Protein: PEP-utilising enzyme mobile domain-containing protein
Organism: Pseudonocardia eucalypti
Amino acid sequence: MSNAGQQVLQEVCERLRRGPLGALRAEAVKIVVDWIQRFIVFRDTERNCVDRSTFTIKRCFLEANRRLTERGLVETDRDFWFLTVDELWTLLETGTATRLTRAKITARMRDWDRFHAKEVQMPMYLHKGQPVDLDQAEDDGAQDGVLRGSGTSSGVVTGAACVVRSLAELGRLRKGQILVCNSTDPGWAAAFNIISGIVTETGGPLAHAACLAREYGMPSAQVRNAVTLIPDGATITVDGVTGRVTIDEPA
């Protein structure tokens, strides 16, 4: 634990000791914090084993796709991603690519590319194969210019919205803007050095974007369909406590 972390822990324990059962509660906090620190190390260490095993599985599928390509049964080097394991092995065993198999690959690839480019918003829940809405409907659209979501990092900030649909567009960001995106991962970390706030569509309070927003001390909120509902370049106000995003001025 860093020196700053040790200092914070010491201050917390001192406050606890001044209350009922203070000594006992302070010791309990120390034990829990120590356990968490140990668990974090274990969590990061185990990734090496998981990465090696999943990479081995990926190489097996890549080899299967290479053989299918040589036999003229698939057309691209990523066709195998859009077949189930059983469908892939059946194609290898039979050596025949039916019209149905090719149609499945084409349709699934098209749907994935549209989703990956954030051209469509997939339903969060399905019931008997049909989309259902199990969340409150109040955040489906702006009411009086206000989008209602959930706060993930406290604070209030007003600035220009920069709607970024993919990592390739990250270079559009300018200092002080509010990033509006579907979600983030470690590849987006550089953006947090210049933005003043962030609005995402998914993830919750433990998501990558929310955790980094709290570390950088900036407001963040999660609003469903934010990428579609917030105009690029509009002046918005983000309340990281209530989760409300107000569209102050259009783009």
Summary: Residues 48-116 form one domain. The first strand starts at residue 125 and ends at 127. The radius of gyration is 24 Å.
